[in-house]
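Title: [Solved] DUF3710 domain-containing protein 3D structure

Original question kept below for reference.
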Amino acid sequence: MFRRRRGAAETVAAAPPETEPASPVRESGPWDADEGFPTAERVDLGGLLLPIGAGFEVQLQVAGDQIIGALVLVEESALQVHAFAAPKRSGIWDEVRAELTREVGVAGGTVTEQEGPFGVELAAKVPQQPGESPQPVRYLGIDGPRWFLRAVVSGRAAIDPAAAEMLENVIKDIVVVRGEEPMAPKEAIALRLPAEARQAMEQEPEPEYYNPFERGPEITEIR
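Solution (posted by the thread starter after getting help):
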């Protein structure tokens, strides 16, 4: 269900189906917006076209006034995705993976590299709060053309292959819209609310709940 945050209701609406593009060269994504990708029902977040499915709840993560990521919740699992700019001729997953390994270690967790559906990934156990037992988390990274997609899988999908497959399929169907503007490596690719959501905010600024779908999004602020 949609929850209002920060004094106004924000919604995420499904983007209109894309026109049928040329057949993709690869069998699965994540896709680049400039290549052929399969038509699907996706939420248009500007820098990301995010697949949605029955029973999904989508939350947008906000830092200040900027939307920086999306969180997909389904059953007992969660998928967090962020897109970043990357150099034209090289990926950054090796570097980011090393940084994540150090950060998890500083937090008192453990990390093991393993092979996953997108290549090398990190299987970690990370304390959520001081004194709590570490929780399993998977860190996945995909280098694309001038972009990098980071995905974090937690909850049941971090340890259950059947639950993980559902979220892995979401990652495989994401479309990254990098844009042509110059960006520094690791700079977040800007996300935005869809036009339908912005229009709903202008027309209905005060209702406590707005529920255009059975499961809606919420805005989560990160400080």
